[in-house]
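User: Need the bound-state model for heme C:
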Amino acid sequence: MRKMRLMLLGLVWITLCLPASAADKDPNLVLIKARQGDMEIRSMYATPLFMMARGKMDYDAEKAQTLANNLLALTKVDMGMAWAPGTGNDKYPKVSDALPDIWSTYPAIAKKGKDYSDAVNALTKVAGNGLDGLRSGVGDLGKSCKSCHDEFRQKE
Ligand code: HEC
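Assistant: Bound-state model below.
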């Protein structure tokens, strides 16, 4: 009986440790997590900007400028290595939503990336200049996120 319980405990322990050891063995899982993290950070900065523009949050010029600056800073980080070929959702279903078209139609996604950084760049010039300024810039920002997701991200 005691032996049996120990064996069961052992099994539970092995099961709990599996995710960590899988990540150790497959470095691509680190890349996927990193690029998803990059997207989550974009979202953290962009969401309050969208909310201010829609009147769901009070406009704050200084805050809006800082959020836009942070988005700009992120565009300067080269995340290229996180998008290694062979890491799409055909190979990593349930882990990644990145469509294989990213690699098969390359450099189409680079154009979307450029549209995005252009929109962020333009936003930094207007975000702190009043609510109308912010509004004139977030439209293109939102479009640039959506347009890339429409083409290259698996719909839920
Ligand atoms: C050039 C293409 C592109 C642009 C621009 C882009 N995204 Fe993404 N985004 C993707 C792809 C591809 C994925 C799926 C990544 C994966 O799961 O491996 C993704 C995933 C996400 C996710 C889910 C991350 C997770 O935890 O799984 C969020 C949130 C997100 N994007 C927000 C944004 C926001 C906000 C913007 C604009 C401010 C933006 N994205 C701009 C391509 C893009």
